[in-house]
Amino acid sequence: MKVAVAGCCHGALDKMYETLELLQRRHNVRPDLLLCCGDFQAVRNEADLRCMAVPAKYRHMQTFYRYYSGEKKAPVLTVFIGGNHEASNHLQELPYGGWVAPNIYYLGYAGVVRFRGVRIGGISGIFKSHDYRKGHFECPPYNQQTIRSAYHVRNIEVFKLKQLKRPIDIFMSHDWPRSIYHYGNKKQLLKMKSFFRQEVESNTLGSPAASELLQHLKPTYWFSAHLHVKFAAFMQHETNSKEELPKATKFLALDKCLPHRDFLQVIDIEHDPNAGDSLEYDAEWIAVLKATNSLVNVTQSSWNMPENNGLHAKWDYSATEEAIKEVLEELNHDLKIPCNFTLTAACYDPSKPQKTMEPVHTINPQTTEFCAQFGLTDINDRIHQAKEEGSVRGENEEEEEEEEMDSTGSAEEPSEYNTDNSGLSSINPDEIMLDDEGGDEDLSTCSVDPSPDHPPDFSASFSDIRIMPDSMAVSSDDAMDSTNEELEKSGVSKQVEEKSLTERPLKRIGGNENGDSGIKKIKRRNQAIYTAKDEDKTE
Prior knowledge:
Blueprint: E1 2-6, H1 13-27, E2 33-36, H2 46-49, H3 64-69, E3 78-80, H4 88-92, E4 98-101, E5 104-106, E6 110-115, E7 118-123, H5 146-149, H6 155-161, E8 170-173, H7 186-192, H8 197-201, H9 208-217, E9 221-224, E10 231-237, E11 247-253, E12 264-268, E13 279-281, H10 283-291, H11 321-330, H12 365-374, H13 379-404, E14 433-435, E15 466-467, H14 482-490, E16 506-507, E17 519-520, E18 522-524
Parallel strand pairs: 1-2, 2-3, 3-5, 7-8, 8-9, 9-11, 10-15
Antiparallel strand pairs: 1-12, 4-5, 6-7, 6-13, 10-11, 14-18, 16-17
């Protein structure tokens, strides 16, 4: 079957689907499935816009709301993961995945599904070491910290995915697996994106958590986005024994969805011709969710996953054949995911804008039904309970304080959440600062013309095969050390946490191709997406 893969969508659904229709008209290429590697932006209304980690002037409604309302329907089954520019309040309603609109399915924080016998997995968000060991504690309305931490990858999702034993055909992540750039045309990558040099040479570009999953899952295909450049790699995995068959992963990073950009790729995937056309649950994944349900955490406290270190009575949560069989029996061997999409928020009405609409914490009926069916914890319900318990404790403590105060005392407490996100910094700390050189060019390793006049050829994207040595394997736990933290805070091309990086020019750290150091103007990774002529005043 034909599978179309898209990079950062940024809410431009009409453009994405129009491109697919153009391919069909001109070349008779009709994809059976569309995959999107994050920054999907399932924005339903003005409240959702306030939950995107971008300055107010970059918040645009785009076209998803038309698919949410039913005005339009996706012409092809669409499966996507979350990135770092999302309506986090909407996606948070579906931690285990679900329909965000008819024919558009979100994989959740992490998930695995099947379509025509093809096994598709993914993990949402981007890696940040300081949030990696926390639970999913965020809920709307977000403050300036939680609006970003809400989309940071957590160790529990990586742990769940590492329990999988059966082969994965396709896997998606938003940010790249760390070290993957060593298996493609790295020289050309650095020529086109010279601001990556410091991170590539120090092996800090990308996600160590994704790299860990790549080593464990060894999928046939791995697709990513985030860095807004097309890049291909082919990695031959080492075998653990002579009996084990060699495995290889074809990696492809896609560009952002903009006119004249190579944001879409169509590939042929072997499938089960006897399988139905419906999206299906994956029995092993459901069994893993059931096995790891006791590990669900909704606190900000850092914690480690169970491992074989003498401190845990149990560390293997992989699904047994008996557990998988039980899941199949529970479903009467009917794995079809129900089409149970329901509206959970008001839809944007261009004729009646509501700029003051505030986000609320919503429990989605899809999640309620899914958790009840498989005996899982509804994460949002748990968060809601924790908030109520915290409020009760706060009220009791407040009453005790009032009894000890005199008549002039005050027990007023500040609100836990800042509902006004309009004053966010003009620089998102989860975006890499990029300079202008070669920012809009693609890599020669990906010699694919994206125009509808030239249908894409995936086989042309891979030029060589390399094996990852053990010394290069990266653990997400290794990335928690202070060295990585310093790189995150100090690197010019790294994700910047300080407000000192504004529009001023910075010195190039590594020098240019001629070896001299000069002053280059920098720009944010998504400047082409989020553009505005004038600076808005802070509200």
